[in-house]
Amino acid sequence: MLVVAEKEIGGLMTPEAAFEAIEAVFAAMDAGKAYNFPVVREAIGHEDALYGFKGGFDASALTLGLKAGGYWPNNQKRDLINHQSTIFLFDADTGRVAAAVGGNLLTALRTAAASAVSIKYLAPKGARVLGMIGAGHQSAFQMRAAARVHAFERVIGWNPHPEMLTRLAETAAELGLPFEAVDLDRLGAEADVIVSITSSFSPLLMNEHVRGETHIAAMGTDTKGKQELDPALVARAKIYTDEVAQAVSIGECQHAVAQGLVEAAAITRLGAAVNGTDPGRDGAEITLFDGTGVGLQDLAVAAKVVQLAQAKGIAQTVEI
Fold first, then answer.
1. What are the distances in angstroms from CA 120 to CA 70, 123, 166?
2. Residues forming the active site
3. Which of 103, 145, 229, 255 pairs with 309 at a CA distance of 20 to 30 A?
């Protein structure tokens, strides 16, 4: 078994490589060549933690495996990030474990890459303003990934804890973009593309906030009960997702579906836009990508980082 330690990931995996891997996964899913296994996600009753497993199989790349991990909200007191995970890959021909890969940075990179793929295919033409809702650990990855696929002219942002907005300001400065902290009404009115990446359990961006042609990448809701958007706003949008079953059960769409505002049949896999079997915006005022996070994405970036680690001779070999 090969082991790629978390500390090695930053020097191996690039955002460009993550984007290519995730775009290919969306395409394979739409083509029926890859599928995700049912998600297990539980509150374990200790440290307020959520723990679970996401896995799948991509027949086009022969990638098989799972990610084990979750969300530990009290980790700051231990100087650790809240999201902790490890990805395990298995040989599709024999079932033997092939690799164990640190999953923390890869989770942030694949999540950002997923929203960036949605921006590439669904952003309004001539989009100039990127709106960011949330300023936690993953927000910087989201902003960098968005800026790589579209030429934004400025960034505006909001966070429930304003003191954390320095992360967004610093990331925008790194990208050479002006940044302004705004309220949600201005953000919804001025942003052409909005990325939400919070752990909220109540709606933040309301229907009346969003005006004009807009693409929204809702990336924070991945558990039953979480919510970032007003269900009425979700119902206004042409909806895309990574996995429809997850969108209606643990994703942003769960609330609109529960209220009878959206039907599962109206939700399209993003891979259809990638493959050209769906026309994308096609005149829609609002498009929404409900990014629930799927196991195949984790496996794709893990497989890529194993290849890079082998090429550089830094993958450790362990017999089990």
1. 28, 6, 27
2. 67
3. 145
The arithmetic mean of pLDDT across residues 15-32, rounded, is: 96
Range 41-68 average pLDDT: 95
| Residue 18 identity | A
3-state secondary structure the chain: CEEECHHHHCCCCCHHHHHHHHHHHHHHHHCCCEEECCCEEEECCCCCCEEEEEEEEECCCCEEEEEEEEECCCHHHHCCCCEEEEEEEECCCCCCEEEEEECHHHHHHHHHHHHHHHHHHHCCCCCCEEEEECCCCCHHHHHHHHHHHCCCCEEEEECCCHHHHHHHHHHHHHCCCCEEECCHHHHHHHCCEEEECCCCEEEEECHHHCCCCEEEEECCCCCCCCEEECHHHHHHCEEEECCHHHHHHCCCHHHHHHCCCCCHHHCEEHHHHHHCCCCCCCCCCEEEEECCCCHHHHHHHHHHHHHHHHHHCCCEECCC
The CATH T-level fold of domain 2-107+296-317 is: ornithine cyclodeaminase, domain 1 (3.30.1780)
Which residue is listed with tokens 């209606």? 248
223 pLDDT band, cuts 50/70/90, is: confident
User: Amino acid identity, residue 78?
Assistant: R
Dist. CA 193–CA 74, nearest whole Å? 31
CA–centroid distance for 245 within its chain? 16
Cα–Cα distance measured from residue 100 to residue 34, given in angstroms and rounded to the nearest whole number: 21
What is the domain partition of the chain in residue ranges? 2-107+296-317, 124-292
The amino acid at residue 291 is G
Residue pair 81/277 in contact by the 8 Å Cβ criterion: no
Q: Which fold has domain 124-292?
A: Rossmann fold (3.40.50)
Under 8 Å between Cβ of 101 and 300:
no
Tell me how far apart the alpha carbons of residues 8 and 94 are, in angstroms, rounded to a whole number. Answer: 27
